[in-house]
Write a structure and sequence with these properties.
By secondary structure, this protein is an alpha/beta fold. The protein contains ten helices and eight strands. It has a single domain (about 5-300), classed as Ureohydrolase domain (Arginase, Chain A, 3-Layer(aba) Sandwich).
């Protein structure tokens, strides 16, 4: 992989769900040595510090949790993403997955300015395709894909003037999907690969097909990596544990293939809750996976004593 200019951007979003702790995620990545791991691979790394939400007035709602705060974060992170994508490859250190409401929104605006298509690779146990009107939990970390594809119900959020077409989205690692989300997705052209498909056919073939489509379209690629993409046995520090996730080898293979493609232009690291971790184990796993996406290979991988 050619040397990259990488900007680390903290996004301590902790309002996308009720269980607290993700606001500590950015500092956990810093403590786990993310910047040094990337510099060792020959990249230029600048830590830009943390984004702050726009001013907001909190108004309690009976069905949606922290709508005003999520809107404030979405606006701030969209601007940050659009600006960062113009000069570097940003890594957004989360923070819960509601941060992707802003990061994908901003990346899409940047791509539109270049007249190039944005593709999104969603590595997650969940589709996050709800809207504020359809979510049963009221937690907006389950809505980013609904928002950026232009679904209705996001009153007060920044307008989605450049929605991401469904055919430019691939979701890998799914294993917890609401019936309503499933029905809505089945009516679209989203590529969705659940864990049964991965068990039967492997993870490399569908990912390679998606990356080939990105390359053929001269597209930009936003990757959103949720801790719960991985099996909780190897990555326990997440509030939405779903057994049966990707193995550590499958995770590294995905990131190595992303590296080989040299297509990724922005990256989210989301849902790390250090309060639930075991001696920093999950943070270190996520750092190691990120290193694989930027050039670390099997023979280069350090031995970890968790």
């Amino acid at each position: 992989m050619p040397s990259k200019e990488i900007h680390l951007i903290g996004a301590p979003v902790d309002c996308g769900k009720r269980r607290q702790g993700c606001l500590m995620g950015p500092d956990a990545y810093r403590t786990a040595g993310l910047a040094d791991a990337l510099r060792t691979l020959g990249h230029t790394v600048v830590d830009q510090g943390n984004v702050a939400p726009d001013p907001f007035e909190d108004v309690a709602e009976p069905t949606v949790y922290a709508r005003a705060e999520n809107i404030a974060w979405t606006a701030a992170l969209s601007r940050a993403a659009q600006s960062a994508c113009a000069t570097a490859l940003p890594i957004f250190m989360g923070g819960d997955h509601a941060l992707a409401l802003g990061t994908v929104h901003g990346a899409a605006a940047h791509a539109a300015g270049l007249n190039r298509p944005l593709f999104v690779l969603w590595l997650d146990a969940h589709t996050d395709y709800h809207t504020p009107d359809t979510t049963g939990s009221g937690n907006l970390h389950g809505t980013p894909m609904g928002y950026v594809t232009g679904r209705e119900g996001f009153d007060g959020f920044p307008a989605v003037t450049t929605p991401v077409p469904h055919e430019r989205i691939a979701m890998l690692g799914l294993r917890s999907v609401d019936a309503e989300e499933r029905a809505a997705l089945e009516a679209t052209d989203v590529t969705y690969i659940d864990m049964r498909h991965i068990d039967e056919h492997g993870i490399a073939k569908p990912l390679a097909a998606f990356l080939d489509r990105v390359a053929a379209a001269n597209g930009l690629l936003h990757v959103s990596l949720d801790v719960d993409f991985l099996d909780p046995a190897i990555a326990p520090a997440v509030g939405t544990t779903v057994p049966g996730g990707a193995t550590i080898r499958e995770g590294h293979l995905v990131m190595e293939m992303i590296c080989d493609s040299d297509l990724m232009t922005s990256l989210d690291l989301v849902e790390l809750n250090p309060f639930l971790d075991e001696r920093g184990r999950t943070a270190q796993v996520m750092v190691d996976l990120t290193a694989s996406a930027f050039g670390r290979r099997v023979f280069d991988r350090p031995t970890r004593a968790y």
